[in-house]
Amino acid sequence: DAKTTQPPSMDCAEGRAANLPCNHSTISGNEYVYWYRQIHSQGPQYIIHGLKNNETNEMASLIITEDRKSSTLILPHATLRDTAVYYCIVRIQGGSEKLVFGKGTKLTVNP
Amino acid sequence: DTGVSQDPRHKITKRGQNVTFRCDPISEHNRLYWYRQTLGQGPEFLTYFQNEAQLEKSRLLSDRFSAERPKGSFSTLEIQRTEQGDSAMYLCASGVQVSGNTIYFGEGSWLTVV
């Protein structure tokens, strides 16, 4: 089972920041938080990941709370092309280190 | 384009037929994963290879499913005696065996069983 909880859906206005929350209260000390998104009918696209520090790349920023029990993915200037299902995943360490997906958050960016 | 390619992208088959999907991972990646995704659900893990060894299989992988990675490069997923419930998108992903590394997905292969 997925170790994360996300709201099923969110809306955001085009050009505004989209802040997607994720709870992972049972995360272990060496487990990373990963974010992927999936645009309709395509494979999941990697966005960003982090362990304990905040991370930023060209797509997004990841803010992880100090206790690591929750995180927020920030898309600074959402566009219509950011409409997708966003998955927050706590990655199992050791063995296959497979990704276990939940249902994610359906983000709709409105014009 | 992540560098993980899957073929075919779409397959329509009659119930009872066998189908095979191929995945070519990113060339230096020794880890390879297969997932299945049905409408409205997140991807579900099916199986994992490290090089040519199949090290983990989900209970979702029934006896009709078999996956191989003969030379540790490309992989195939075969479904025998397809059923309508096998209709789904089959996703392949690859990564390297380094903690904290990223897994990259292909675009998926859509299967429709009629």
Biggest sheet statistics of chain B? 7 strands, mixed
Shape of chain A: globular
Biggest β-sheet description of chain A? 5 strands, mixed
The low-confidence runs of chain A, each spanning 5 or more residues with pLDDT under 50, are none
| Terminal residue distance of chain B | 30 Å
Gross morphology of chain B is globular
Mean pLDDT of chain A: 93
Number of helices of chain B: 0
**Order of SSEs of chain B, N→C?**
EEEEEEEEEEE
Strand content of chain B: over 45%
What's the gyration radius of chain A in Å?
Answer: 13 Å
- Per DSSP, the total helix count of chain A is 0
| Chain oligomer state | heterodimer
Protein structure class of chain B: mainly beta
- Low-confidence regions of chain B: none
In short:
With 111 residues, chain A is an all-beta fold. Chain A has strands spanning 9-13, 18-23, 33-38, 45-50, 55-56, 61-64, 70-75, 84-90, 105-110. Chain A has a 5-stranded mixed sheet, with no helix packed on it. Chain A has a 4-stranded antiparallel sheet with strand order 2-7-6-5, with no helix packed on it.
